[in-house]
């Protein structure tokens, strides 16, 4: 364990790395006060705890920077943080007479409470006459709040160092090995602790030969990563290959029912936990997009997952088994094959068969993180299984962090959706107590962490919404703005809020319309290509012809996908008259002249929204230019460059999609605007 002074050097002295939502100025309200950290005499963990030492370093840093003082727990402190077994989960915050006492049962929860007070700023102390006393309990909705990194040890010839990574190289790996200096990893753990994320899978779910060796030959390097994360209470997980007993162990099979295979995995798990006692578990992508799995041996996903679960159970480990399974070599001529059905078809029949320490990790939609798609029916179909909601923070299909697209509103809409209708449980209610929340991270070794400085808001929002899915995403955005630009004048705050708050809807306006999805260039998925995937083995997504567009997924005449939903949604989606406009083309093939609930036709809606989307992006550019002088030059220039690309791309989307629809339908724009 580094001493606090050494830890301070690690996490605070990275001059070439942007501080994101933890700039020194954000600590002024707490750092200017008298702070105290309780000792084990308060009934907590040993004083040598790494997280407690980290917390002490945080207090020392804040007070040294802003003129406060760290005092003894018996002194009159403005903020006392202490351990108490009386708090079952999370932390308790009490305020009386402007003095704040925070208690938690474990050091990581106490660390989370510190960042909560920092986030509240002066409002945490509220020492003005007449301010009420406070006694609050803050606990995460789920015990599992995790980020999946798609980082490769070796640079992949197609996907690069980070698959679907849009912010440079990996913060973990470089030149085929774990980086010698992992100080930035610890700084990253600090950012995550500030928003309550406490688990990371440190390598790509598409496990290649080099990455597979992290489980064996390079386990000591995984231990180094775990050690870099540990001071901030973040636990390491590892993506593993189902074929590892063959590729790493020399066995003739990886059949989950073979006793030698089971023994190999038990021994592998024993080695991992012996090296990393607080290791979290394994993430597995099996029988999906070419990754090996139990299907090769006539087994199912429950067989494969439970074999691994047995191996890690003695150590309290988890298996995150991804439900992203579909036929990626389908014949586009076969309209009976529907990629949207696949996860439910594979996993719903297995409900109740997964071990207690298996978490089935389900993408939020039935396809693949599109800008608009319905919520996956799998989340409501497995009541006897621990399911996790998987989101994508990295903006694969939403502008790849070249575009400013704040996804908090999209995620909030998913979390609040009620699969069983009004009065029923929400998606958050289903996932939070079971498998929790996971997301694909958007971080790289770029100075700004996420490439686009404004894309930091998405990483922040995931952590906050995973902690409390009921939060207002607009309020979360304002939290991020306040922390990231702590001394921002009103015009800057208002401009950044205006740029981001409606940016998801803006992106939807000028890209694939009405839920149809996947009108992107194959492979890299950036920019428009309306027919790019329409005739490929990966799936068919819009079925546009001279008469209309959309995929018939009804029970009456289509693929039957609507039947995977419980009532009332199975019937709402089945009927084009009740299907929400924004999902119409996902569920129905309709004429271009079909009239939406909005009162306009499908084709006119396409024209109107794509022209409007470009104008909205133009307004974003203008808003930034009006306030760019109020931020550091490097931030101003990076955002300016990214917004210029966003405008160029929006114009390209508008022109390609509008022209495509004009040529398919033969119906002109009622407003007479230029369509090529």
From TrEMBL:
<protein>
    <submittedName>
        <fullName>Alpha-glucuronidase</fullName>
    </submittedName>
</protein>
<dbReference type="InterPro" id="IPR017853">
    <property type="entry name" value="GH"/>
</dbReference>
<dbReference type="Pfam" id="PF07488">
    <property type="entry name" value="Glyco_hydro_67M"/>
</dbReference>
<dbReference type="InterPro" id="IPR011099">
    <property type="entry name" value="Glyco_hydro_67_C"/>
</dbReference>
<dbReference type="InterPro" id="IPR011100">
    <property type="entry name" value="Glyco_hydro_67_cat"/>
</dbReference>
<feature type="domain" description="Glycosyl hydrolase family 67 catalytic">
    <location>
        <begin position="134"/>
        <end position="449"/>
    </location>
</feature>
<dbReference type="Pfam" id="PF07477">
    <property type="entry name" value="Glyco_hydro_67C"/>
</dbReference>
<feature type="domain" description="Glycosyl hydrolase family 67 C-terminal">
    <location>
        <begin position="450"/>
        <end position="673"/>
    </location>
</feature>
<dbReference type="InterPro" id="IPR037054">
    <property type="entry name" value="A-glucoronidase_C_sf"/>
</dbReference>
């Amino acid at each position: 364990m580094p001493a606090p002074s050494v830890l301070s050097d690690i996490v605070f002295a990275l001059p070439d790395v942007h501080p994101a939502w933890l700039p020194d100025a954000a600590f002024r309200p707490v750092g200017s006060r008298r702070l105290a950290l309780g000792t084990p005499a308060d009934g907590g963990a040993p004083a040598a705890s790494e997280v407690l030492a980290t917390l002490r370093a945080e207090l020392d840093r804040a007070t040294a920077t802003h003129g406060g003082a760290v005092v003894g727990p018996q002194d009159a402190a403005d903020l006392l943080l202490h351990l108490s077994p009386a708090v079952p989960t999370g932390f308790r915050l009490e305020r009386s007479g402007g003095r704040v006492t925070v208690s938690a049962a474990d050091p990581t929860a106490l660390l989370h409470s510190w960042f909560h007070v920092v986030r509240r700023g002066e409002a945490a102390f509220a020492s003005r006459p007449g301010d009420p006393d406070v006694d609050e309990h803050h606990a995460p909705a789920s015990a599992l709040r995790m980020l999946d990194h798609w980082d490769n040890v070796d640079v992949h010839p197609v996907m690069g160092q980070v698959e679907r990574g849009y912010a440079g190289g990996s913060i973990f790996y470089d030149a085929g090995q774990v980086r010698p200096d992992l100080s930035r990893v610890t700084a990253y753990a600090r950012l995550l602790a500030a928003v309550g994320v406490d688990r990371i899978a440190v390598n790509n779910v598409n496990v290649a030969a080099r990455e597979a060796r992290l489980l064996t030959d390079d386990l000591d390097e995984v231990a180094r990563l775990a050690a870099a994360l540990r001071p901030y209470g973040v636990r390491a997980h590892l993506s593993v290959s189902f074929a590892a007993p063959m590729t790493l162990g020399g066995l003739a099979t990886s059949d989950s029912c073979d006793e030698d295979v089971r023994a190999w995995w038990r021994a592998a798990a024993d080695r991992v936990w012996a090296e990393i006692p607080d290791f979290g578990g394994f993430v597995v992508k099996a029988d999906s997009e070419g990754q090996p799995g139990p299907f090769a041996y006539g087994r199912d996903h429950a067989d494969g997952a439970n074999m691994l679960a047995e191996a890690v159970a003695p150590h309290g480990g988890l298996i995150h088994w991804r439900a992203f399974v579909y036929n990626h070599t389908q014949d586009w001529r076969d309209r009976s094959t529907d990629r949207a059905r696949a996860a439910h078809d594979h996993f719903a029949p297995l409900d109740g068969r997964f071990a207690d320490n298996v978490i089935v990790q389900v993408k939020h939609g039935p396809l693949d993180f599109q800008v608009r798609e319905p919520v996956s029916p799998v989340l409501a179909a497995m009541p006897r299984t621990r399911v996790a909601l998987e989101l994508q923070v990295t903006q694969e299909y939403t502008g790849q962090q070249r575009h400013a697209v704040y996804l908090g509103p999209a995620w909030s809409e998913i979390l609040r959706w009620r699969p069983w209708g009004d009065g029923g449980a929400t998606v958050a209610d289903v996932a939070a107590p079971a498998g929790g929340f996971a997301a694909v991270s958007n971080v790289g070794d770029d100075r700004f962490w996420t490439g686009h400085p404004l894309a930091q808001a998405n990483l922040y929002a995931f952590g906050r919404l995973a902690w409390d899915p009921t939060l207002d995403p607009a309020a979360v955005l304002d939290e991020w703005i306040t922390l990231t630009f702590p001394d921002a004048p009103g015009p800057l705050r208002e401009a950044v809020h205006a740029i981001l708050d409606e940016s998801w809807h803006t992106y939807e306006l000028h890209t694939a319309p009405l839920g149809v999805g996947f009108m992107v260039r194959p492979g890299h998925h950036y920019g428009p290509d309306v027919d790019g995937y329409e005739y490929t083995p990966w799936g068919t997504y819009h079925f546009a012809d001279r008469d209309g567009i959309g995929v018939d997924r009804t029970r009456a005449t289509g693929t039957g996908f609507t039947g995977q939903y419980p009532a009332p949604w199975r019937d709402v989606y089945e009927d084009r008259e009740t299907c929400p406009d924004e999902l119409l083309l996902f569920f129905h093939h309709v004429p271009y002249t079909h009239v939406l609930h909005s009162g306009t036709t499908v084709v006119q809606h396409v024209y109107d929204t794509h022209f409007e989307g470009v104008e909205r992006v133009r307004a974003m550019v203008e808003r930034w230019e009006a306030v760019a002088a109020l931020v550091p030059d490097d931030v101003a220039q990076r955002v300016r460059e990214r917004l210029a690309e966003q405008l160029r791309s929006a114009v390209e989307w508008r022109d390609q999609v509008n022209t495509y629809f004009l040529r398919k339908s033969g119906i002109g724009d009622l407003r007479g605007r230029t369509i090529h």
